[in-house]
Amino acid sequence: MNSLTVLLLCAGVIAAVNGAVLNQDLAQYKQFSQECVSSTNTDPKEIAKVYQDGPIKNEVLGAYLLCMNNKYNIHNANGDVDQENLRKILHVFSPSEDKTDIVVANCSVKKEGATPQEVAVELAKCTRKYVPIKAPKANAV
What we know:
Layout: H1 3-40, H2 44-50, H3 58-71, H4 83-93, H5 97-107, H6 116-130
Helix pairs in contact: 1-3, 3-6, 4-5, 5-6
Signal peptide: 1-19
Pfam family, one: PBP_GOBP
GO molecular function, one term: odorant binding
């Protein structure tokens, strides 16, 4: 086997593994999102606005975002951000380790007196400054 064949074979395996991970991430996202929409009575149209750079308002999306962050173990019960779990989730949105480091450093700080729901909203707003939040797929919510 020549080196080009080996390289192409490795690239194919990596792409297949990455595709499987992304499909698994998407399936999990859909499940979590449906559960959070149901438990928080959040309008899916409001969630879709987040992916179109729409406003992220606490009174509209706070409960949903907190629910999603809890499902992904990004927050503990006090609303503190678990930086390692945040880092793991960010790989879905940003392949750049530098951007991940920037988001973790700048967006995971809980403001004094903030409720867990407020922390979830601020985390989403801050993350969007550094990493575009794209919809995982149409009708994912």
